[in-house]
Amino acid sequence: MPVVNSIGSSTSKIHEETQKKIRSSGWVALVGAGPGDPGLLTLRGKQLLDQADVIVHDQLLHPELLSYRTNAQYVFVGKSAGHTTLPQPQIEQVLIDLAKSGKGVVRLKGGDPFTFGRGGEECQALAAAGVRFEVVPGVTAAAGAAAYAGIPLTHRDTNSAVLFFTGHAREGVADEETGLAPPLDWSALAKLPALVMYMGVKSLAEVLSKLLAAGLPAETPAAAVQWATWDKQRTVTATAESLAAAVASAGINAPAILFFGKQVLLRDQLDWAGKRPLAGKTVLVTRTGPASSDLRQDLRNFGARVVEAPMLHTLPNPDLATLAPLLLRLNAMDCIVLASWRGVESLKDQLQAAGLDVRALGRAKLAAVGRHTADACWQMLGVRPEIVPQDGGEGSRALLNELQTVGMVTGKRLALIRADVGLAGVAEKLLAGGAAEVIELPVYLSTPASEIPPHAIALLRAGEVDWITFTSGLTARRLIELLGPEKTLLTGIKRVSIGPMTSQTLAELGFPATVQAATSHMGDVADAIVSYQP
Ligand code: SAH
For ligand 1, atom 6, which residue shows the shortest CA distance? Predict the structure, then answer.
């Protein structure tokens, strides 16, 4: 019937319009980033970061979170040196305007958005403007500091209540940062068994005198935790009476959080973070990539602060004229050796550039050096390598042995996928071992870094680096070249080498290794540092 038809079509039209509106309308998610350590972001927070078009953030966020999305826009609305923060109404307007222009916005906030974070105000503004919003809780500074300093927020032996308050809100005075906060009842606070004070370093002496005057026992155990959960976390402990002096003499300033109560004493037993073997140590890592990300992770698990100064960069080999004919020969090979994950990535790119795809690999068996290279074969090419020799870290003994063992040398044709430098001497050894043919494909070029990153050189000059890791002779040479006359800075720093070849280069350069990894594997470098005994 015509009537039904007309209703049906208009209903579906409305449906379509609504769908369109939903798809094109923007949103804002207030996401708690946690107090520092990027590992403390929630999974939901990560999902939303992955979906965002724009990330609006303030200061005090870990650089890893601020460089996490390479194809989203980051907008900074916090305090920059010497300037005050963008006024709150303007921040709210930025969020509203972005959402109304159809963007997905993550408002990334330190700690938890609804704990002294003005998240409530931002949501009120979004609600009033009719913008769709969501709030993702984060680890608040109190919880982060409690965990990483070994001070439980509650404990059955010490306290069954805890109160969070801010030392920043000046009573009855409209404040640019916090607005007009309701006054605190100091004598009520002084009666509680446990207190946690946010934003309190500047006003510490003033707040303490009020609390003590209101009856807080002078001998109440107290602690200040600065940069909680960061690798530069510092803690001082004292009593309520002596905390202000202790904080001043340790030079502790914002961001710091203060604890009062008997549970502070448990720290002696519970300070797991401070008792990690490399806590308080700074390690400079001279390489990037997934294999060294394991090294970074190992070092962080041991509690070290890790600073990166990659000494080699890679770029695709632009010489397709030479590479293309070699790529076309791959399907005639018995075995294709992939020396690194970067080699796999570059092989894929070069195949694409030559108008080929993974079928160019033919029926050749694949040998991938190390777990990361094997993973890359599956993830980037959709193929599983049959042969996975251990990553030698340096040298190619494991690779050659494995190829021999599986009968992939004598009479075989092999292709080596590598950088312009790398797998030195492998082709010759394979031929000497009876290989019928070896072709080499330098799919990417490895170029020496042109500078030491500014933050790394600053730490070196300040004498704040305890260890440097050298995972190849090339990185050692380059670092020393770039330091020039400042290479003497290295004398005071302990040096760990991945294996005998790197150690030899270091010795030739006049900076012999302090320790050498046990088996030339990346996985042993952090252990070598930890087991070092002067
Ligand atoms: N929304 C945040 C708090 C913002 S107010 C949260 O939930 O944690 C800022 C205050 O939080 C700082 O002045 C400090 O007292 C505390 N803070 C934030 N990060 C901290 C950190 N990493 N270590 C110690 N205190 C921190």
Answer: 111
201 lines ligand 1 (CB under 6 A): no
Ligand 1 atom closest to the CA of 109, numbered from 1 = 1
CA of 198 to the centre of ligand 1 (A): 6
How far apart are the C-alpha atoms of 237 and 21, rounded to whole Å? 56
For ligand 1, whether the C-beta of 255 sits within 6 Å is yes
- Rounded CA-CA distance 272/248 in Å is 25
Tokens, residue 350: 């070069």
* CA angle 423–425–430, rounded 5-degree value: 95
Pocket probe for ligand 1: among 122, 140, 196, 199, the residue whose CB has the most ligand atoms within 8 Å is 199
Question: From ligand 1's centre to the CA of 61, what distance in Å?
Answer: 11
Q: What is the separation, in whole angstroms, between the first and last Cα of the chain?
A: 93
Residue 345, amino acid: E
Q: Is 355 left (phi over 0), alpha (psi -120 to 50) or beta?
A: left
> Which atom of ligand 1 is nearest to 197's Cα?
15
For ligand 1, atom 5, which residue shows the shortest CA distance?
A: 116
Instruction: Output the CA–CA distances (angstroms, integers) from residue 415 to 317, 335, 347, 396, 410, in the order listed.
Output: 17, 6, 12, 15, 14
Q: How far apart are CA 506 and CA 43, in angstroms?
A: 43
The one-digit pLDDT tens for each residue of the chain (534 residues) are 444 444 445 556 666 666 555 556 899 999 999 999 999 999 999 999 999 999 999 888 998 899 889 899 999 998 655 566 688 899 999 999 999 999 999 999 999 999 998 999 999 999 999 999 999 999 999 999 999 999 999 999 999 999 999 987 554 444 445 455 567 899 999 999 999 999 989 899 999 999 999 999 999 999 999 999 998 899 999 999 999 999 999 999 999 999 999 999 999 999 999 999 999 999 999 987 666 778 888 999 999 999 989 998 888 899 999 999 999 999 999 999 998 888 999 999 999 999 999 999 999 999 998 888 899 999 999 999 999 987 655 667 888 999 999 999 999 999 999 888 777 789 999 999 999 999 999 999 988 899 999 999 999 999 999 999 998 888 999 999 999 999 999 999 999 998 888 899 999 999 999 999 887 677 789 999 999 988
Residue bearing the CA closest to ligand 1, atom 24: 256
Does the Cβ of 145 fall within 6 Å of ligand 1? yes
Q: Which residues are marked as active site? A: 58, 79
